[in-house]
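The aim of this short unit is practical: by the end, you should be able to scan a pair of folded records and say something sensible about each. We start with the first protein, listed as its amino acid sequence and then its structure tokens.
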Amino acid sequence: MPHDRRNQNYIQMKQFFKYVLATMTGLIITFFLFLFLLFVIALGVVSSATKEKTFTVKSNSVLHLKFTLPVTERTANNPFKDFNFASFSANKQLGLNDILENIEKAKTDPDIKGIYMDMSSVPAGIATIEEIRNALIDFKTSGKFILSYSEGYGQGAYYLASVADKIYLNPQGNLDWKGISAQIMFFKGALEKLEISAQIFRHGKFKSAIEPFDLEKMSTANRLQTLTYIDAIWNHLLEGISKSRSVSIEELNSLADNMSIRKPEDAVRFKLVDGLKYKDEIIDELKEKLGLKKKNKINYVDLDEYIHAPKTEKGAGKEKIAIIYAVGTIESGEGDEESIGSERISKAIREARMDSNIKAIVLRVNSPGGSALASDVIWREAFLAEKAKPFIVSMGDVAASGGYYISCAADIIVAQPNTITGSIGVFGILPNAQKFFNNKLGITIDTANTNKHAGMGSPFRPVSAEEGQVIQQSVEDVYDVFTSKVADGRKKTKGEIDSIGQGRVWSGTDAKKIGLVDELGGIKEAIHIAAKKAKLEKYKIVELPKQKDFWEQLVKDFSEDTETKMLKKELGVNYEYYRHFMEINNAKGVQARMPYDMLIY
């Protein structure tokens, strides 16, 4: 009997290990099959991305403008950038550079008869929208039509759509028209509940980047500067819409103040749109414009297709103008396409300066600032480049604080009227979480120091009065250097710069009035100025820094981008507040940074 039981146990154990081994083998095979499938997909995407594509535009076509993905400064060459691994589909995210080029190309393309704008929102900053809008205004000089339709217009989308010959709205749609709001989230109360104190050092009464950690609402100075620049941006939008729609600025303001656009019919009554139509009616009108019969199909050409259509070269020969993209928060190190690494950007400027075939440089800045030290590293290369050849700065949505620091050495600074710039000021924040660890977590910290101030900067204790004086002095020193360099670059005195500095933020329009900006316009205007200064009639454009190969970005996309997408999905519109909090919280050293990001809605 015991022998039979042992045999039975042996058989059961044998069966158990058999199933375990089979399961493990199956998992391993599945894993490797998945890797193989992923590799095949990667090869397909790579092959598709690296293969030279051509797109033939059919005669009597319409360029279709629809913005579903955020508009970046330039199109990424990484095929995995917008690849959705859940659905195994790719979304092409075009940069502003290719969007503007497409519209310019369509202007003279005999096969493109007009533009159909189909959008409810434009995921881009207001200065980026301005650049696209100006390109569309230029497109209209060709005599071709622009027709816009939406189920609902946000204010940014409507500003862009206002250039259209005809603007239509869905009969059950809506048009958002209420003015601009800038909202700031304050963390002081949360930090107090956690017993974490923010030890703040700054120069500039308008330097409000630290206010969310120190106050519960905007200071008087911050409210003044915020109202000043959002009023300037709003007034510029009103001027553009008033000119396009023949509605007075006073009436546009009245419509916003009284919330007069409550129903779709109101938008027609007050002449903000030309009519209420369903999509099928829009299609019929497009066919009529194209001279098509109702049974015929419209040849739509999407932006991501049209970029592969043949284009006219900007110039010939060896002479070039370099466009160097400085986008994102400024930090030390290499950085990437979404941040300004001092090593990467300064190297790009240096290479352009030393390349004899590059006759002029345009630095495209879209940055709220960041590390003061990293900004100074980039400034040095900009300073040397300006001495060697024409050096022009083109400002995007925001070029403030450190973003202005790296710009101030330029020959000419070009900004949009609604660019946010200035913010010449610096600050530093040291968190003190001693009570949080002691009282909330029951954790105590003990230290052993070789010298009296060895632990200065530790988050586990407050700074002493003596240490605070040293830190504040370093902030004052950075501000002194900052204003000195701006004064030299702008040909002004330090006193003049200090009077318009103090961390104050300006719109592009106001920045031009006070001498922080020379010309109003976009990247095209900056390139034109660079070409004129370099006495070039024919030239080629080279974009720097060179984008990384997709293989170098693949691991990053799988980890960082996936994490970011998950956070965006969970936090929704609050993601921007989280991102800003983390940027400030993780900042090292003295900062030259914008107070916050402003979203137009």
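Turning to the second protein, read its sequence before its tokens, just as you did above.
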Amino acid sequence: MKNLLAVLLLICIALGVRGQQKPHVFTVKGMVIDSATQGPLGYATVALQDAATKTSVKATLSKNDGSFLLTVPAGKTYQLVLAFIGYNSKVLPVAVTDSTVDMGRIMLSASSNQLATVSVSAVKPLIKQEVDRLSYNVQADPESQVITALDMMRKVPLLSVDGSDNIKLRGSNSYKILINGKESALMASSPSDVLKAMPASNIERIEVITTPPAKYDAEGLAGIINIVTKKNTAQGYNGALKTNYNSVYGYQVNLSAVVKEGKLGYSGFVGTSEIRYLGAGFENLSSYYSPVPSSTTQTGTNFNGGHNRYTSNELSYEIDSLNLLSATFNYNDKNGSLGNDQYTTVHDVNNNILQAYHTVNTGTSSNNGTDIGLDYQLGFKHNKNELFTASYRYNNSANSQFSNIANDETINYSLPGYHQYNNAGTKEQTAQLDYVDPLKVITIEAGAKMILRNYFSDFYTDTLNASSGQYSNEADQTNNFTYHQDVYSLYNSYQVSLTDWIFKGGLRFERTDIDADFSSVGTVLDKGYNNLVPSFSAQRSLNSTSNLNFGFTQRIQRPGITQLNPFVNQSNPQYITEGNPALTPAVTNNFELSYGNFAKGSINISTHYSFSNNTIQNVTTLGANDVTTTTFANVGEDRVLGTDININYPLSKKWGINLNSELLQVWLKGTYNGSFYTNSGQQGHIFINSNYRTDDGFRFNLNVGFDSRYVLLQGRDNYFFSNSYSVVKELFKKNLLVYIAVNNPFDKFNTLDFFTKSADFQTYNANQNYYRTINIGFFYRFGKLNSNIKKTQRGIQNDDSTSAGGKN
């Protein structure tokens, strides 16, 4: 008992002493000043680091008057780190002599270099302008954990997304999408579908490369969109699980993970999404002027639904400090059902019925892609930034389509029911060598590449025999199509970095050999051509926070499998579509001048001009029985003059706004089947995002966007207005986010319409789409990491071919 009383007495004495001690914390304050102007620097990043481990303990932003205040636990040795875009970073020791340490006026001097030696994770800039590209830091966007990758595209400078979910780069569909600098199976057939299912949280940044350097393939008239996924991994593991339920389309699930154990590292994600089988109305109205005036009306319902699954994986092994191996595996699979139920009526000029029939089309579709890659990177002892990389990649993408068309309730219409089949795809092998040597002022890059590409399509039609009830093959609608396209290239480029200037230029030589075989009709195509593609860009630093960029490049538009495939799609017998295997590449010339200011937030203004001849355009002609056929042809001579404005501005520490806008003047002309077409006009888009954060973990987001009608060779397409609202709540130390988002709450459907006009006819097509949706979901983080994974800095980038375009 005496021992117990003694212990209790000692505890009471200790508590009493503790109660008389000062709190074990101290405060550091000061003011951040521009050394040249002697004015305050607001929104500079200020952090206190553990002097021994260099890990940040607490960070904040300086106020408008440059002042800051940080309170941290005592008992450690600290250093103060200050960083601001366009200024030299500064590290100061903190001498703890009292409960409050006043660092006084701290001068930051301007620098033309970005932050290099000090990493502070408190605030990251959204926009970064390099000599040949713009980068959007997705992880710095507070909405990245809530919205999809496709929705994130609307915020990125120079990009827009229309009502049909088509992504456009400066109003054009002629570009290439890369994943981590490489062509990927994820983007094999329908990039919009994958990006709509993928959360933006999987992405580190999105690069828009409008003046691609010589190391990139020359394809893509407008440029390259490079999506860089999250890979910053370290010893240990972490991951994230995101689930979402959409009131119209169904569920989405995505799991991402990064793991580092010794020299072995892994990063990747896997996801799946549902598209419910739903129907939406449509109408097609056509007026024909010759040979006999008439009109056609189609009304009905389109149906579509299915599932989408995807995965992206990268494995890295550090053999030693100079040798690195990495392997990639990507896969995407989309399958589902589609069809329509429609009634067609043909009238004469007096509105008498000339023909009528009811059509039911039920079908299935499947798209999948797989790519496997291997990269080896060799560093050099005398300079570890000097690198040699050898890469190999195999890609296999395929799509199949089946349609069962049945007609009834006919008036003066005798076309029987029929089945259509089309199995098409691409098999591709790529080998590449790259060398980069960053000297003190000059960086030299050189390399060689070989792409062996095989497009294929096997399609046929079986027609119903009404008397026997059996289907028989139609020989004139059957074909086995193979198209071999081999591209061999060499490139050499140089970058010169001076105090206020950066110059980058190079040449790329490409040899293309084509061998096509239409086995069913006995037609063979064998030809080749050479291209020498220059590129040049320059950046001038005007001061510590602004710069001026100029760029010029030539680009090639090679046709893709969808445009080349001669498959005749008769799922709607009144409006037929088909590819054109006789398409040839087109060359465009692009000029660009831009200004960027990154003092507080960012402002980027750019103007550009491009011209090209013989571009690939959609063209529609009128045939027998008032049937129109849409295909692709090298008929476009186009000119585009445009201005892009992007503003990202913090109204306060809690409230920010982003504006992304574009205005283009377009001139198009071309001759097809003896008819001359010309069209011109303005087109563009504007997207505004505003986000507000509260101290108790709530985030509020507002998005409003408008995409205008775009100029086509034979008409105009639809305009699109969108608005969305979301609320996010952070829980469990920000490891769990719960959110609800409402998209376009004021209308259940919207109508997307298109106009096509020639001397013989004009057509109006209108399709209803589900517009109002409600999304509910959560995002959960787990795990802990300690050191970075290494990955090869060069790799295969197949950006040399384009898919079927929509808008130009």
